[in-house]
Design a protein that fits this description.
The protein is mainly β and 349 residues long. It contains 1 helix and 30 strands. The radius of gyration is 22 Å and the shape is globular.
Length: 349
């Protein structure tokens, strides 16, 4: 993947867990190791300056799953998912201060924090076995986020911010027949339209011809389209009608997709090599093969106009579950493995 790409930055460590990229080019490398505080053994991560590419702040968190960028230099941190701390960086991100603590009630377990374009913070949580979302809105007088009891969101698995007036909620149902429920909420957190995409495709005789599997998160592509993936397919969903428009089939199982700044889609897929003997399967280094797709779709016709495939099996590292890629400023790309993070300058796709 990197033969003709210019490498801007490389960081190697045996403890890399994940990464987060800020819109201005600063980035965090999450890792595990000893804290700089004497006698304290905690998970630590480094925040790097996007211009100098030097570490400028240590954060005592291990994974991106515990860090939540709330924009405008605010961010949330959780350590036990029963409490979220809201902090604020200074403009250089060289230090930060705590501005608020959100404590969950008994039997509540937090999942994540997200700031919507309208300025509200959304808290995703489990309560008594059910998933729900709470809304927090900043008070202009004291700058503290207050719980908005008049807003409550249920029956959703994930939320996708669309614009200042709308957001998408969706839920995958495994009740036969399986389906994908899509809902558009207005700025008052009320459903304004919805639709159910059936996961069973039937023939003229009402027999199940094939099933659709939505295994990834749903991503907003533009103001008109949503995309998702599942098994060896990429799905294109009309955002206005909330209907499945097109299914694009690839010959590998897709596990990650990324919409690039120029509209291309990068997709990570794998192929499992099957062996007739269990012994051969356990000892062969080629049981799993990994591929990167560079895909371009004409979204007016939903035709696939480019699909480049590269074998990257020797680049994913020892633990393939750590392999992730992210957009970087100026059309760059960040690739993260279990022991290395590389930033490519102007990836050029």
């Amino acid at each position: 993947m990197s033969e003709n790409k210019k490498v801007k930055f490389t960081y190697k460590s045996r403890e890399i867990q994940s990464a987060y990229i800020f819109e201005d080019g600063d980035f965090i490398i999450f890792s595990s190791g000893e804290s700089q505080k004497a006698g304290v053994n905690k998970n630590i991560s480094s925040l790097f300056d996007g211009k100098t590419l030097q570490s400028k702040l240590i954060l005592e968190i291990q994974s991106e799953s515990c860090f939540f960028d709330l924009k405008n230099y605010e961010f949330g941190i959780c350590k036990n998912y029963n409490q979220f701390k809201i902090n604020k960086f200074n403009e250089e991100r060289t230090e930060y201060k705590e501005i608020q603590i959100i404590n969950l009630q008994q039997f509540e377990t937090g999942r994540y924090l997200e700031k919507f374009l309208n300025g509200d913070i959304i808290l995703s949580k489990f309560y008594m076995g059910s998933l729900s979302f709470s809304v927090y809105r900043k008070n202009d007088n004291d700058g503290i986020y207050k719980y908005q009891s008049q807003f409550h969101i249920e029956n959703c698995e994930e939320l996708v911010d669309l614009n200042k007036d709308e957001f998408l909620g969706y839920k995958k149902s495994i009740i036969i027949p399986e389906s994908l429920l899509l809902m558009i909420f207005d700025k008052n957190y009320k459903i304004k339209r919805n639709n159910k995409v059936m996961a069973e495709i039937k023939d003229s005789n009402n027999n199940i011809k094939k099933k659709l599997y939505f295994t990834s998160k749903i991503i907003k592509y533009n103001d008109d389209k949503l995309i998702a993936c599942g098994c060896s397919h990429i799905y294109i969903i009309d955002l206005k009608l909330l209907e499945l428009e097109t299914t694009i089939k690839l010959d590998k199982t897709i596990i990650q997709i990324l919409v690039r700044p120029k509209g291309n889609i990068l997709a990570l897929g794998y192929l499992q090599i099957h062996y007739s003997k269990i012994k051969d399967r356990e000892t062969s280094p080629d049981v799993w093969k990994y591929y990167m797709y560079n895909i371009k779709i004409d979204f007016k016709t939903n035709d696939l106009i480019k699909c480049e495939e590269n074998d990257i099996s020797d680049q994913v590292g020892s633990y393939s579950s750590f392999y992730k890629f992210y957009n970087y400023i100026n059309n760059g790309l960040v690739v993260n493995t279990d022991n290395e993070l590389i930033i490519y300058d102007d990836y050029g796709d």
